[in-house]
Structures are given as structure tokens and as C-alpha cells.
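Quick check before the chapter quiz. The format below is the same one you will see on the exam, so make sure you can read both the input and the output lines.
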Amino acid sequence: MQLGNYALGEWVLGTGKTASLVHAVTGEVIGEASSGGIDFAAMADYARTVGGPAMRRLTFHQRAAMLKAMAVYLMERKETFYALSAATGATRSDSWVDIEGGIATFFAYSSRGRREFPNETFHVEGPTEPLSKGGSFVGRHICVPLEGVAIHINAFNFPVWGMLEKLAPALLAGVPCIVKPATATSYLTELVFRAMVDAKIFPAGAIQLICGSAGDLLDHVTEQDSVAFTGSAATGQMLKANPAILKHSVRFNMEADSLNCSILGPDATPGTEEFDLFIKEVVREMTTKAGQKCTAIRRTIVPAGLEEAVVKALSARLAKTVIGDPSVDGVRMGPLATRGQVRDVGDAASRIRAGAELVYGGGDFEVVGADREKGSFFGPQLMVCSDPFTRDEPHDIEAFGPVNTIMAYRDLSEAVALARRGKGSLCGSLVTHDPKVARDVILGVAPYHGRLLVLDRTSAKESTGHGSPLPNLVHGGPGRAGGGEEMGGARGVMHYMQRAAVQGSPSMLTAVTREWTKGAEAHTDAVHPFRKTFDELEVGDTIITGTRTITLEDVVKFAELSGDKFYAHMNDEEARSNGVFTGRVAHGYFIVSAAAGLFVDPALGPVLANYGLENLRFTKPVYPGDTIKVQLTVKRKTAKDPREGEIPQGVVEWDVEVRNQDEEPVAVYSILTLVRRN
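Here is the expected output.
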């Protein structure tokens, strides 16, 4: 069977020389891959001219809905993916991380797209920046999709998750993608990709696939394109140096394999819950995916004097790990992905042993349900480096498999120094129940890590573990780890967008952003805005209310009703004595309530409910005798996705400014209301 390439809206077979795809357990050839004859320049142009415009016409909410629909579609077919995933050597739990973890990124970004982005084709970021004394010249930042193609070059170890975790933020941003999986396990990527094409959820040109070499694809990039790479640092640096990438300043995000570490805190001695958690976590990271994870623990850093106890505990747990065919009951660790990986890992482990002593593994090991010589099996190896400050091997050489080196520290400063010798890692972990240890270590190692886990008895039950990247947190790291970031919630989406600073008058910026900017022209008419439906309301619709004079009786009654009898509201002399107030002051929350009494139209109408209050600031005290009024303005409108049985509605954000008799703002905030649509 030859894998297909999905290019220019069609499945096509590559020509010429093919690469053999091998079953990791049996060693049998299960397919071939080739991208020969593919016009890569045409693929990039098709993405830019067909996929890009179609994606940019959609709003964030529409793109989010597509991600959710695709996630549901893929989840319904997950067992088909699991069946083929076994050929990569993955156990069921390994495949769960790859398959369902990958699909979960679509669900996560769908949710974020609806919650954190507007129902617009662009995003307005941050507050209005005042640029002039009189307020007639202001600035905003807007983020718009890049008008090129996102090229994703993925690693062999997670053929599903690696693809979907990059696709999710790019597609939500509105950018079409070309996916290039690692050839060795591309058969699983192709199967999932075929399902996405069959679903017919994404517009034409939104996604394309290359199974085989990427050829001269990177030679055709432009200033609007981006490249995201996952793999070895050497390959990433070679790709990043492509002349076209340098010439056009193409965004290049690299996530490279790194020498991640786990640190055992000085309080986590044998017999503590933390010691047991540490041993379990290190072994899990060595054996999950047979150690073929860019986030796996490669260096185990422990207090001096505990080396022997740690070696004994790790060895005992590793000895219970059953290696073999993942389809056999009881097998907990499968093979590496290919025989080539067996050679590479073995060679790297031998080079590490030049600076460390092998204390577990390295010889014969039993394989259950498979032929060790035909499959790509590699047994766990544990080493101890007795002088980690003079030996470079454990800090410079990564064996991309179940290989780990133990090293000792005498104090926390040494633990931090050893962690930093990795020269940049995707993640690190610390197992301790001591908050001071956690603070000192985390602040010491943070500049060298993309993500840090503090594990103890409190978080253990719900912790996702050392090596699990999550869509709401950044995945990447400095230095050796590539210097890039992926996912991280909304941050990942911004990688595929251009941030532009827009300057002008408040009215001009309101017209551009469709979000009311303070100082812009306001629209007032005889109809109260609460009498208008969502569709009838316009950004800038404004009402200026009548006035209300705040009395001492108001303050006393609110104190009794709310129970808030803070001295500044109840005692004139004590209020003056604190140096902030000139006398007894009204409750801030009473002012908010009184403001609502001024601007609310009480009769049944299109406004369905108060949805929330945001960014409340009390800017000036209100004293008994002061008079307030309110300016209420439609700031932003967001149509909600209709749900079955629900009244069609949208969220209206209102800018609220409460002023005193001197026209000074005393409270500013936003309120959100649910408003019926036509």
C-alpha cells in the first residue's frame, strides 16, 4: 500500500523512489511513501489563494465551530486510529496520549475560540492607548491572520498529536496549513488526515498533506508564510537556515528534543509520599512511548547520599515493566518506532556511558509476544554520573529512548546548576512538599525551561505528569529546546497573526475595530437602548441618565442591607483619620447599584439578563451630598451560537462611566447583558 499525498484538493500518489514503512513490532513492511512528482510551489500557492481567503472570511467563532465538529468526527472514529497506532509500537495508553490527546487540542481551541476571541475575522488586543493630552489621538493593537500558508514539519513519535496540536491554533487563526509528518510513522497521520478530508468540514485548501520528502517546499516561502518544526535541533537549524526563510524573515517556530530533568527535593526522602511519586514519575517517563518523547526525563537529579536508594527503587520498578507486543495483555512498554531508532539510541547510550556508570539494563531483556530481533525493541538503561559538574556527556547527549542518568547535588544551588546545564529544556519537574524549596528551585531554573511541574502529595492525584504538554500552556523552551512556543491557549493563535498598531481619532478606531473607543462620537436617540434588540443596537449607542443625589440615609440603609459596616462608611472621624477620605464615604457597590437604578429600563424587553461585570474601578470617593449620573454606551456586540431550544441572543458589552456633579468619573466598568436577537 502506498500512502497518498493530499495536494490541490486531490489525493495523489508520489512517483519514483519510495520509502518503506515498517511495523515496529514485527519488522514487516506495511506500506510505502513517496512525494515524488508533487509540485510543492503549487501546493503553497493553492493554500494562499484558495484556502486562505476561505478561512479569513470566517469569524473566530465559525472557525471554532469547525474545530469542534472535526473533533467530534475524529473521536467517533478513534478505534480505527488505535488499531493502526499499534504498528508504531505504541501501547493503548501511549496511543491515548497521541490520538485522544491530539483530538482534545481541537476541543480545547474550539472552546477558547468562542470564549477568548470575538465573533469577528480579526482580534482587538489590549486597552486603548492614549497618545495625546486632549484624547483626540489614540492607538489600539489589532491582530489579523497572516495571508500565507503555515507549513508544519512534525516528528515521528506523535503522528496524530503532533499534527493536531499545530493545526488547532493555526486554523483558529484563519491560516491554511500544509502538514509534513515524519515518514516513518506517516501511515497513521495519513489515516487521520483522510478522515478529516472525508468529513468535508474545512474549506477547500485549508489543509494539505505531504507523505514523504518535503522537497523544495521551503524554497517557495514568502513573508506571509510561517514554518513550525518539531524534531532534532540539528535538522531544525538546517531548515531554519534556508535562504528563502532568511530572505523573507519567515516566522520559524522550532520545538527541539532536549535533555529534560526531574529534581528530587531534599525533603523527599525514602518513606515519604514524595519519594514514591518521584520514582513512579521517572519510570513512567522512561517507559511511556518507550522513552520516545521530546519531554521525557533524561536527567534525574537527587540529593547526595540518596543515589543508592534511588537506583534501587528505580531498578525494582523498571524490572516489573513488561516489554513486548502492545496487543498482549500485561505489556507496558512497546518497541521503538524503527530499527534505525534502535541503532541511534544504542549509540547515544554508549557515548553517555563514557561519562557515567551503567547500573541497570544494557544486556539481554525479555520480549513478550514478539521477536526481539525482528522488532524495534530496546530495554531501559539507567546510569549514574558520579561527577556531573565535570562530565559533559549526560548534559550534551540525548538518547531518544528509555535511557536516564542519575546525578547528585549537595545543596539547592547545585541542583539548579545541574538543571541549567541542559542549556535549555522543554520541561522540568521538581518533587517536593516544601514551598521554600519549590520557590528557590523554580525561580532558579525557569530561565532555562519552557514548562515546570511541582509535584507533591497534594497535586499528585490530578496531575497530568512531567511529560504531558497541555493546550492551555505553552509547549517549547529556550536554547537547545529550540527557542519556540506552541499552544499556550490564545498565545498559540497569535503566532499565526500579524499584530498591527493602529493610530487615529477615537471615532476612526471605533469604525475600524467595531469596538467603541472612549472619546468617539456617541449616538443618542429617543429610544432607550434597553428597548432595542441585539440586531437593532449599534456600537456607540449611548444614554446619559438623569441624576441622583447620594444621602447619608442611603449609606446607612445599604450598610444594614449588605452587612458591610466598614468604618469608613460608618464613622466620620475614623474615615478622616485614615488619610484617604475627607469624611464618611458611600459604599462603592452602592454607587454601582445606584447607577444601575439610573440606567436600567425596568419593563420587559429585549434585555434578558445581566451576564457579568468587568474591570470595575472606583476612581474617586462619593460622599453624602454628591450627585451622580451615568453614561452608558454600547462598546461591543458578540452574537452567540444558537442552541436548540434557546432564544436567539447575543452578548452586549456596555461601557459604564459614573460621574459626579463636577463631571469627574467616580466609577468606570463594563457590564455584559444577554440581549434577544430578532
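If your answer matched, good. The mean pLDDT is 93.
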